[in-house]
């Protein structure tokens, strides 16, 4: 019987990795966040501290709980510091080459043979990531949704090589320890949610690009007409236009269907450095 997970590693401290680390530490896990540089590690820490302070202001946690949570969060720039982790969740950029390189490294440094190596990818084949390691049965997709502290869903994505025990342990972590709801999807680009969401977001970009309507009217249409919490262009800005394009590209590579093709405007905005909320400008301004 393998014990429950107490030591979690998160690689990448951006909006997804930071959110996963926050949820883990708030649930009582000891969490190490690994970033690429001291500057990125400082930014990850400051994002997490800001989010925890906001949770205090909103009376979701007490000041004492914030301090305890902060004490459970550690930051490093060295992947080898994850050697004692029982589970590592990768949440770096949606770039297949980078992910394969990282998983080969994690395979070398994580010493517990029962440790789970998970990826938060939205669209890259889990089987490829798994095959970068010598333990593909311990690798799976554990896909969270942004903002991670708010949204309840986690998609669990086993590859053809993942053991049922690995899926069951990841399910227990997400459900029982982190308080999320899980659904299971096959190892197909986009899984369940993005396979439906991404064509919708791309359609909104095409509609805007074609001059059908203003960004505000497209978004208001879906907020007021369909009770979505935010419109598709605002959501695209929140996901990150570079991330949306990377997901669309992976899905187009998998299915070769026009519905997944990134429209030229999305491509040009990314080329111009307009990445949405995180860069201060996308379909809207965030200054
Ligand atoms: N961290 C923690 N809490 C947050 C938060 C964050 N980043 N953003 C918002 N919240 C909390 C607020 O504190 C607030 O909590 P209370 O109601 O308890 O006070 C609650 O969420 C609502 O927030 P706001 O009142 O500030 O604003 P809102 O009502 O407009 O909600 C939203 C904001 C939660 C982001 C909401 O608009 C929403 O759910 N939008 C849709 C998000 C979505 O579709 N996400 C999926 C993206 S796809 C993805 O992630 C996968 C992928 O692979 C691309």
TrEMBL record:
Pathway stated in the Swiss-Prot or TrEMBL entry: Lipid metabolism; butanoate metabolism
UniProt keyword list: Oxidoreductase
Domain 3-hydroxyacyl-CoA dehydrogenase C-terminal positions: 190-286
Keyword Cell cycle: no
Keyword ATP-binding: no
Gene3D superfamilies found in the cross-reference section: N-(1-d-carboxylethyl)-l-norvaline Dehydrogenase, domain 2, NAD(P)-binding Rossmann-like Domain
UniProt lineage: Bacteria, Bacillati, Actinomycetota, Actinomycetes, Pseudonocardiales
One Pfam family of this chain: 3HCDH
Record InterPro entries: 3-OHacyl-CoA_DH, 3-OHacyl-CoA_DH_NAD-bd, 3HC_DH_C, 6-PGluconate_DH-like_C_sf, 6PGD_dom2, NAD(P)-bd_dom_sf
Name the record gives this protein: 3-hydroxybutyryl-CoA dehydrogenase
Organism of this sequence: Saccharopolyspora halophila
Protein family (similarity comment): Belongs to the 3-hydroxyacyl-CoA dehydrogenase family.
Domain 3-hydroxyacyl-CoA dehydrogenase NAD binding span(s) in chain numbering: 8-187
């Amino acid at each position: 019987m393998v014990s429950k997970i107490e030591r979690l590693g998160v690689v990448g401290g951006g909006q997804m990795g930071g959110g996963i680390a926050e949820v883990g530490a708030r649930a009582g896990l000891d969490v190490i966040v690994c970033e690429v540089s001291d500057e990125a590690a400082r930014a990850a820490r400051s994002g997490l501290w800001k989010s925890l302070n906001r949770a205090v202001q909103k009376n979701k946690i007490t000041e004492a709980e914030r301090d305890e949570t902060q004490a459970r969060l550690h930051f490093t720039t060295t992947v080898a510091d994850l050697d004692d982790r029982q589970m590592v969740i990768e949440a770096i950029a949606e770039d297949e080459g980078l992910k394969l390189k990282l998983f080969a490294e994690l395979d070398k440094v994580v010493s517990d043979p029962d440790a789970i190596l998970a990826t938060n990818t939205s669209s890259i084949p889990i089987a490829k990531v798994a095959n970068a390691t010598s333990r593909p049965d311990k690798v799976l997709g554990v896909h969270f949704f942004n903002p991670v502290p708010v949204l309840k869903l986690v998609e669990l994505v086993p590859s053809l090589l993942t053991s049922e025990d690995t899926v069951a342990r990841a399910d227990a972590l997400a459900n029982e320890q982190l308080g999320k709801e899980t659904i299971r999807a096959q190892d197909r680009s986009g899984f369940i949610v993005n396979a439906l969401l991404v064509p919708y977001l791309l359609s909104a970009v095409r509609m805007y690009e074609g001059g059908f309507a203003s960004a505000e009217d497209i978004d208001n249409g879906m907020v007021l007409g369909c009770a979505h919490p935010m419109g598709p262009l605002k959501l695209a800005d929140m996901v990150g236009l570079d991330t949306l394009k990377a997901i669309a590209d992976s899905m187009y590579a998998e299915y070769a269907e026009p519905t997944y093709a990134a429209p030229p405007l999305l491509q040009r905005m990314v080329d111009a450095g307009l990445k949405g909320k995180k860069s201060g400008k996308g379909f809207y301004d965030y200054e």
